[in-house]
Amino acid sequence: MRYSRIKTYIIKIVFFITILMSLQAIDVQAQRFPKPEFDSGHIQPETQVPVPRSDFMEFFDVFVLIVALSVVSWLVLKKRSRRGVFWVSIFSILYFGFYREGCVCSVGSIQNVALALFNPGYKIPLTVIAFFVIPLVYSLLFGRVFCAGVCPLGAIQDIFIWKPQQMKSWLQKLLGLIPYIYFGLAILYAATSTDFIICRYDPFIGFYRLDADFLMFLLGGVFLLTSVFIARPYCRFFCPYGVLLNLFSRVSRQHMTITPSKCIQCKLCENSCPFGAIEEPDMLKIREPRKNTVRRFLILAAIIPALIIVGVYTGSQFHENLAMVHPKVRLAQDILEQKNNPEIQNDSEYVEPLEIEAYRSAGKSDQQLFTEANEIIEDFYVGGMILGGFLGLVFGLTLAGLSIFTYRTDYEPNKGECLSCARCMDYCPVETTNS
């Protein structure tokens, strides 16, 4: 009965996505433009990013995504097969990684969605919406099956796991705050039309496209070498999309379990998870006095709002520093520095930056540029406060989570942090007995 419900969920998802794509197919055509033709004999240079795909192939990518997620869900929840998940990971590396060159990427789609929400002039492709929404839907129903074997960024790290070391719980919690910071900054910079920092600093896209600069190749290499001993460091401590998957998976309808039936407390799975996502039994019989519980609740009720206020204030104070990433703000700053230091231009060795030279040739006034830059800085003032408040809330809730005691009688995966990789299943003798 349980697996028939899983099958029903998957059929509904496929049907919903198919109808949605059919209704929007004509709308996608609005973004297609023919290549310009030159009479002067000019030859267009080779592009350094993936060439736009045909509509059919873009929707085919969505279809492949749905099939891959469905297969992993079936392998994890019904077949309980780690080997099957591994081979889906290899497929994802080859197809979504090297063949599709990491684009469209569900991780980077966060930025497209943020830009579309805050910039009415930006028309987000339907396929990008699909790559953003579909893994979240599967996470809501079946846990983080996208992370298990479909995400090419996670899959390439997964094959490098060799001798994973268990991390201290407090260190894992501390490093686990970084994705929230990255997530907030990515949305801020995308919403202000500043930059897509997730794509710019993707450590593995250089391997898939074979065109990254030395520093990005080095960064990707460091992550992969680190994966040998610290399992999936990018997924666990940097991935911004993992923030959403974590939240959705916590309330998933169906989630993988270590054992298919009652746990026999053999402890064989205790250190089987390289991601530290297995929660041990806590059968403490002595419960905390009600008075102490109420006192701790009141303290947290005061600390969390205080952290939010501190975050809002801190974000407002750093908004100008955050805004300096925007090219127009940097250009205004350079021109203002020129105006305030006329001796710079009189220096015989001074070479005017290409950005300023291009701006001068456009014929725009400095005052117009300063006005636009000030408007952008004002946007960052508001965005900085929201970002600071969000991080304050995250820190507060993390602190509250550390003070909540959960009573467990079995070894269970943490539904938010578990990547549904199915490794722990191989350590459970109950499955072997029932198979």
Q: Could you please describe the fold and organization of this structure?
A:
The chain is mainly α. It has two domains: 2-26 and 55-282 and 414-434, no CATH class; 290-339 and 355-401, no CATH class. It has helices at residues 2-28, 55-79, 82-99, 109-118, 126-142, 145-149, 152-158, 169-175, 178-191, 197-200, 205-209, 214-227, 233-237, 241-249, 290-317, 319-323, 327-340, 343-346, 354-362, 366-402, 429-434; strands spanning 278-279, 412-413. Strands 1-2 form a two-stranded antiparallel ribbon. It is globular and about 80 Å long.
As residue ranges, the low-confidence spans are: 14-33
**Could you say which overall geometry the principal axes of the C-alpha atoms support?**
globular
Structural class: mainly alpha
Question: Strand share of the residues?
Answer: under 5%
Q: Treating each run of at least 4 consecutive H or I residues as one helix, how many helices?
A: 21
Order of helices and strands: HHHHHHHHHHHHHHEHHHHHHEH
Strand element count: 2
Total individual domains = 2
Quaternary assembly: single chain
**Strand adjacency order, main sheet:** 1-2
Radius of gyration: 25 Å
Q: Biggest β-sheet: count, sense, barrel?
A: 2 strands, antiparallel
Mean pLDDT: 84
Distance N to C terminus: 18 Å
Helix content: 55-70%
